[in-house]
Amino acid sequence: MRRRTAILISGRGSNMAALIAAARAPDFPAEIALVLSNKPDAPGLAQAKSAGIAVAAVDQKIYAGRDEFEASMQILLDIHRIELICLAGFMRILSASFVNRWRGRILNIHPSLLPAFRGLDTHRRALAAGVKVHGCTVHFVEPELDAGPIVAQSAVAVREDDTPETLAERVLEKEHQLYAQALALVASGRVRIEDELTRIGFD
Ligand code: GRF
C-alpha cells in the first residue's frame, strides 16, 4: 500500500521534482497524489502538471485570512485522500491547528543541520558563523517553526571559498537525496515519534 502523499510548494519545486522522480520506482512506499501551491504562478506547479500529477493552487490572496486559506487546503487534501504531507519550499507559516491535525504525518525539509540556523538565509548565516560542516534536515512539522522530531540529516563540508550560492548548491543536491530517503522511511512505517524524538526501525 503506497501512502498517498501531497507536496506543498511555493516556488521552483526542485525538491518536489526529486520526490516525484523517486516515487516513480514501483517499490517506493509513497505515491505523489497531489502538488499544492499557495502561489498560482509557482514554476513547480507547471512541472508537476507535465509529470502527470494532480495539481492545485490555493491562492492565499483571495482568502479573508489564514483559517479560510487552510480550510480550502484541507478540503483538497481530503478530496485526494492524502495521508502524508511533504512541505518543500512552502513559504507560508501553517497554524497550530492545521499542524496539529497532521501531527506525525507532515514533513519539512530545512536547509541547515537543525537545531542550528532555524529560519531564513541559512547558508549566509552558516558562513558568517564559520561552521565547517553544514547541511539539511528532514523533520516532522510542529507549530514552532523549524522545530519537530528530526527524521534524517545530510552534511556537506564548508569550503574556504564558499559563497552562500555555492554552499546552497551543494546542500540542495543533498536535499534531493535526503527527502526521498526520509519520505520512504516514514511512508513505510519505520519511523516512530517518542518523547519528541524519532526512532527509526530497520526490518
Ligand atoms: C530548499 O532549500 C528547502 O530546503 C527550503 O526551501 C528550498 C526550496 O527549494 N525549505 P525547491 O523549491 O525545492 O527547489
Brief account:
This protein is of the alpha/beta class and 203 residues long.
Task: List its traits.
two-stranded antiparallel sheet, 9 strands, 34% helix, 6 helices, 203 residues, seven-stranded mixed sheet, alpha/beta, binds 5-O-phosphono-beta-D-ribofuranosylamine
What does this structure look like?
- The protein is an alpha/beta fold and 203 residues long.
- It has a single domain (3-200), classed as Rossmann fold, CATH 3.40.50.170.
- Helices cover 34% and strands 25% of the residues.
- The chain is built from 6 helices and 9 strands, in the order E-H-E-H-E-H-E-H-E-H-E-E-H-E-E.
- The protein has a 7-stranded mixed β-sheet with strand order 3-2-1-4-5-6-7, with helices on both faces. The chain has a two-stranded antiparallel ribbon with strand order 8-9.
- Strand 1 (3-9), helix 1 and strand 2 form a beta-alpha-beta unit.
- The longest helix is centred in the last third of the chain and has 24 residues, at 164-187.
- 5-O-phosphono-beta-D-ribofuranosylamine (GRF) binds next to helix 1, strand 5 and helix 6.
CATH architecture, by name, is 3-Layer(aba) Sandwich
Task: Tell me the name of the CATH homologous superfamily.
Answer: Formyl transferase, N-terminal domain
| Beta-strand segment tally | 9
End-to-end Cα distance = 17 Å
Question: Helix and strand layout, with pairings?
Answer:
Blueprint: E1 3-9, H1 14-22, E2 30-37, H2 43-50, E3 55-57, H3 66-79, E4 84-87, H4 96-101, E5 106-110, H5 122-129, E6 133-140, E7 150-157, H6 164-187, E8 191-194, E9 197-200
Helix pairs in contact: 1-6, 5-6
Bound molecules: 5-O-phosphono-beta-D-ribofuranosylamine (GRF).
